[in-house]
TrEMBL record:
<keyword id="KW-0479">Metal-binding</keyword>
<dbReference type="GO" id="GO:0046872">
    <property type="term" value="F:metal ion binding"/>
</dbReference>
<dbReference type="GO" id="GO:0042586">
    <property type="term" value="F:peptide deformylase activity"/>
</dbReference>
<dbReference type="GO" id="GO:0006412">
    <property type="term" value="P:translation"/>
</dbReference>
<feature type="active site">
    <location>
        <position position="132"/>
    </location>
</feature>
<protein>
    <recommendedName>
        <fullName>Peptide deformylase</fullName>
        <ecNumber>3.5.1.88</ecNumber>
    </recommendedName>
</protein>
<comment type="function">
    <text>Removes the formyl group from the N-terminal Met of newly synthesized proteins. Requires at least a dipeptide for an efficient rate of reaction. N-terminal L-methionine is a prerequisite for activity but the enzyme has broad specificity at other positions.</text>
</comment>
<comment type="similarity">
    <text>Belongs to the polypeptide deformylase family.</text>
</comment>
<keyword id="KW-0378">Hydrolase</keyword>
<feature type="binding site">
    <location>
        <position position="89"/>
    </location>
    <ligand>
        <name>Fe cation</name>
    </ligand>
</feature>
<feature type="binding site">
    <location>
        <position position="135"/>
    </location>
    <ligand>
        <name>Fe cation</name>
    </ligand>
</feature>
<feature type="binding site">
    <location>
        <position position="131"/>
    </location>
    <ligand>
        <name>Fe cation</name>
    </ligand>
</feature>
<dbReference type="InterPro" id="IPR023635">
    <property type="entry name" value="Peptide_deformylase"/>
</dbReference>
<keyword id="KW-0408">Iron</keyword>
<keyword id="KW-0648">Protein biosynthesis</keyword>
<dbReference type="Pfam" id="PF01327">
    <property type="entry name" value="Pep_deformylase"/>
</dbReference>
<dbReference type="InterPro" id="IPR036821">
    <property type="entry name" value="Peptide_deformylase_sf"/>
</dbReference>
Amino acid sequence: MAHRPIRLFGDPVLRMPADPVTVFDQRLRTIVADLLDTVDAPGHAGVAAPQIGIGVRAFSYNVDGEIGYVINPEVVELSEKTQDGVEACLSLPGLGFDTRRAQHAVVRGVDVDNEPVTVSGSGLMARCLQHETDHLDGTVYIQRLDPAARREAFRQVREQEWFWQR
């Protein structure tokens, strides 16, 4: 398996909704292994399949020592209580913006054997679950910012050396 390079903001794969997984085979096992290898690095809280260039509904997470993955995730519960804090993304290196998220989230999906999986958490885990599921819907977190903050975020993105070197 492999630690895969991360696709950067501006790559079309990050803006397209990922396809649901319908075939549970060795190819899927390889994708999941690559997601787990890629998330198992310092500073990586989550990696969605589109971030490694694969347009399928799967992501891995690495939060507070808990490492795992979910295939075909759906957010099934969000608390009314919210959290504010700086959110970052591997696809927008060096940047972080205040983002409001639900304080608690529950995601349901399946594993590589198409068996049910439920992942829930509060704080950073809730933020991760929402962030990675957004990636699978073709949404990068800066798109969730209010209009003024979004304009500032896009201005900062355009100033990044990596943005012009893709």
